[in-house]
Amino acid sequence: MRVEVVLALPRDHRAVVVELAAPATVGDAVAASGLPLDGIDGYAVYGVRAAAGQALRDGDRVELLRPLLIDPKDARRRRAARR
Question: Which Pfam families match (predicted)?
């Protein structure tokens, strides 16, 4: 099975396609990706939060999630106040 693992950074992104034997989990795909895991807060499959033990299907996209630096509501308020 082929799975894409994606790490989005502020001004860059990295995507790796890995081949895994079925059945495979999110944790298997992350380990096989070789992407740096420092600062990773969790995982998602197509934008939906996932646990490391969640089963994957062929063609899934696993996203490595970083922690939020600021609450999105606070960020919006600050942008609105600057205008």
Answer: Ub-RnfH
3-state secondary structure 10-62: CCEEEEEEEECCCCCEHHHHHHHHCCCCCCCCEEEECCEEECCCCECCCCCEE
- Count of structural domains within the chain: 1
pLDDT in tens, 7-62: 988 888 899 999 999 899 999 999 999 998 888 889 999 999 999 999 999 999 99
Q: How far is CA 41 from the centre of its chain?
A: 9
- Cα torsion 25, 1, 47, 32 to 10°: value is 60
Expressed as residue numbers, the domain containing 77 is: 2-82
- pLDDT tens, position by position, 49-69: 999 999 999 999 999 998 887
Q: Which amino acid is at 19?
A: E
Query: Which CATH number characterizes residue 63's domain?
Result: 3.10.20.30
